[in-house]
Design goal:
This protein has 64 residues and is mainly alpha-helical. It contains one helix and two strands; from the N terminus they run αββ. Bound molecules: zinc ion. It comes from Pigmentiphaga daeguensis.
Length: 64
């Protein structure tokens, strides 16, 4: 019985890890598609933008 519970727990942990990785990857794809994220308001702006179009905060220069 304990082994059975341990197996289920291991599967649950595995599913959580996989889902977290998928979410991280989806966030990365969204970032690439929408540009960089404003550190002030958290919205996505154009990768080459120097000033956020949402809150007009100064953005860090992109390296590319
Ligand atoms: Zn902003």
């Amino acid at each position: 019985m304990i082994v059975f519970i341990a197996i289920i727990a291991a599967i649950c942990v595995g599913v959580i890890v996989v889902k977290a990785r998928q979410r991280a990857k989806a966030r990365e794809i969204a970032r690439e598609r929408h540009g960089k994220q404003c550190p002030s308001c958290g919205k996505y702006v154009h990768p080459a933008a120097a000033i956020c179009k949402h809150c007009y905060a100064r953005l860090p220069a992109s390296k590319t």
